[in-house]
Amino acid sequence: MSAQTKKLPGKQRSSAPATVVLSLYIAGDTPKSRSALNNLNKICVEHLNGRYRIKVIDLLKNPKLARDHQILALPTLVRQLPQPIRKIIGDLSNTERVLVGLGIESTK
Amino acid sequence: MPRKKMLVRNRPRDSVRAAKPLRVLPKAATGIQGLDEITRGGLPKGRTTLVCGTAGCGKTMFAMEFLVRGAQQYDEPGVFISFEESAEDLAQNVASMGFDLKALIARKKVVVDHIRVVRSEIEETGSFDLEGLFIRLGLAIDSIGAKRVVLDTLEALFGGFSNAAILRAEIRRLFEWLKERGVTAIVTGERGDGALTRHGLEEYVSDCVILLDHRVVNQLTARRLRIVKYRGSVHGTDEYPFLIGATGISVVPITSIRLDHRASSEVVSSGVPTLDKALGGGGFYRSSTILISGGAGTGKSSLAGHFVAEAGGRRERSLYIALEESQSEIVRNMKSIGLQLAPLVATDMLRFHVSRPTAQGLEMHLAMIHELVVDYRPQVVVVDSITSLLSMGSISEVTSMIVRLVDFFKMNGITAVMTALIPTGEETETTGVNVSSLVDTWLTLRNSEIKGVRARALSVVKARGMGHSNQLHEFVMSKKGVELKSDAWSRKYA
């Protein structure tokens, strides 16, 4: 991962890492969905310093995406960018594992 | 003419069924050859059946045939959720059974969804559920109005997720969900140590469990199927051999369950007019079983050949199961007694199935014969000879196989001729295999040297339902075929 972050900047401002694009797959407004979203927001605010985008995808509204995106467990958080794609499942309550899963080094 | 022994065995079952006709468990026919007979109609409709077994036992093929036949024959579209093979691989594998999966998918009769479970891709960060699976399954079911569902194999999930507690709760929920949706489902599971499945799926399936087995005995492989459990239904409890062939799976025997074949009163000629006369009724009853026993070179095959040629003359198909000689040898030998079998072969009125008894296991033989009969639909079958089957198993095993075979032929309205070799010096009225009581007609042939002449003789030991001759007839083979001399043996030689 470290090798990648070194390569990624490409542009002049090498100190600014790329924006992290995340998709959170949920199925309706359930306690688990809400807790996942809350946990995700908190982690991003604390560790990504504004360099992130979150898209919430409700599979109840768009069930075809479960198949197209190979989603099985819910909630699933997918890191679309930077490549490669990474998948994390669960309510994201374990912050350490979320950070490992997203490849983010803790700033604390 | 059903046998007494079997009738008695059948009776209690029938009376139980007659006493409680109230709620019969609805069943979904699988269309799998033989299975619906064993299960008396198929799998429990709207419920989930567990099909388990070791790797390579045929679980996927079994599940796929259930789905394909459902779509093709019973107008029940189906969803196949594959956790292991891709849709492409599946289509290729089932093509060997003659199923065109892609065409069914194109016609919206079948949906295949390949769910990849790769643990390294998944980081678990707290509580989750498998709602994604439910959504995908629900969508697939709704997209074609599916009535059948296969999950092959659900246990792959255990390789993908580390939180077994959540997984188990979700699997339990899945089975409930399938039941609510009212689909007839098959889930497959891999056989585990001392348990039916590695992860104990059997705990969740309460209605029907089928175990498939694939083992090697004496260097011969044999597939077997057993219904471990079928709640609320009568079913066969034996281990049944099965075969995965060019037309799908065939489970044998389909016969020990049903014994309601009708006895035909139609008589067909043996092909030897003088024998027809000696039998008293003008020949053999249609769909009866005839045993011809005798020493080497007494003319057993020749008699069978006459019957086949006669059937061909009536434009009936014959299947000749040759376990001792090759097809060309038989055709040549029959020609020497004036029987032209080659034209019958050319017009597909006669097919040979030549097989060395040792080349396959006993059950494989039974399964092969079964498949041939289902495929070719012959009116006449010759098994030449049943004695050679003895090299494949014990007398009791061979006898049991022949019992099933006889039942199977009768159910299909087939007139069967079986030959049995009697070793020189043995009693003439023995067969080496205890089948004489099963057959309807029994002819024995013998060679004798009397007054410096080597002569053949035939006697009708029994011919059920016919007033047959009790004499010993002189049996002559010439270029014109087989003939019984009208004057009795006793008068000529005694």
Characterize the structure shown.
The complex is a heterodimer of chains A (108) and B (494). By secondary structure, chain A is an alpha+beta fold. Chain A is 33% helix and 22% strand. Chain B has two domains: 28-251, 3-Layer(aba) Sandwich (Rossmann fold), CATH 3.40.50.300; 267-493, Rossmann fold. Chain B has helices at 4-19, 35-38, 59-73, 87-95, 101-106, 131-144, 156-160, 164-181, 273-279, 300-313, 327-335, 342-346, 362-376, 395-411, 489-493, and strands at residues 27-28, 43-44, 48-53, 78-82, 110-114, 122-124, 148-152, 184-190, 208-217, 220-230, 239-245, 248-251, 267-268, 284-285, 289-294, 318-322, 350-354, 380-384, 415-421, 441-450, 453-463, 472-478, 481-488. In chain B, a hairpin with a 2-residue loop joins strand 22 and strand 23 (481-488). The model of chain B is unreliable at 1-21 and 254-258 (pLDDT under 50). The interface between A and B is medium-sized, with 32 and 24 residues.
Summary keywords:
heterodimer; A: 108 residues; alpha+beta; Glutaredoxin; four-stranded mixed sheet; 4 helices; globular; disordered N terminus; B: 494 residues; alpha/beta; Rossmann fold; 2 domains; nine-stranded mixed sheet; 15 helices
Give the CATH class of chain A. Answer: Alpha Beta
Estimate nothing, just give the exact number of structural domains of chain A: 1
CATH fold-level topology of the largest domain in chain B: Rossmann fold
As a whole number of angstroms, the C-alpha radius of gyration of chain B is 27 Å
The proportion of residues forming helix of chain A, as a percent range, comes to 25-40%
Number of DSSP E strands of chain A: 4
Average pLDDT for all residues of chain A: 82
Give the structural class of chain A.
alpha+beta
Oligomer: heterodimer
Name given to the CATH architecture of the largest domain in chain B: 3-Layer(aba) Sandwich
Main structural class of chain B: alpha/beta
Strand order of the largest sheet of chain A: 2-1-3-4
